[in-house]
Design brief:
The chain is 49% helix and 3% strand. It has 139 residues and is an all-alpha fold.
Length: 139
């Protein structure tokens, strides 16, 4: 049968790995040194990105755009955006059992942003969202 392999020729990707316990002390030390150097590079890159983002977010207009973008994405069903908003406004559930339900009510701080984006807040603090899903690939 073309395109299939039997179990004898299938490799799991670990056949050529040598455990650290079977390597010389010098080899283990060299591998650890390379990892430590790369860890430092990665840590510095993350710090630089964090510092640059903090500087950009000091601008109120930029912060407003970021918040509006998060709200728009959450209203479209983006669960990560929703969780980010929920956690940021201090409504993250504390290890709740799976059967427990909770209701997220937007605080006054984001009500203005919701109105600005055209969303309507109801008397029970729920939000009506009207949006149309379009297929951008057809353009």
């Amino acid at each position: 049968m073309a395109g299939t392999k039997d179990n004898k020729t299938k490799r799991n990707g670990t056949d050529n790995l040598i455990p650290m316990s079977k390597r010389s002390k010098e080899e283990v030390r060299a591998i650890g040194k390379k990892g430590g150097i790369q860890s430092g590079v990665s840590r510095r890159e993350k710090k630089k990105l964090r510092d640059e983002l903090e500087l950009l977010l000091e601008n109120p207009e930029t912060m407003r755009k970021v918040c509006n973008g998060l709200i728009e994405e959450a209203c479209k069903g983006n669960a990560f955006a929703f969780k980010t908003i929920r956690d940021t406004i201090g409504q993250a559930p504390e290890q709740m059992p799976e059967s427990t339900t909770f209701e997220i009510r937007p605080p006054d701080q984001i009500d203005a942003a919701l109105r600005m984006l055209g969303y309507k807040k109801n008397d029970d603090n729920s939000i009506d969202v009207d949006y149309t899903i379009t297929d951008d690939d057809d353009e």
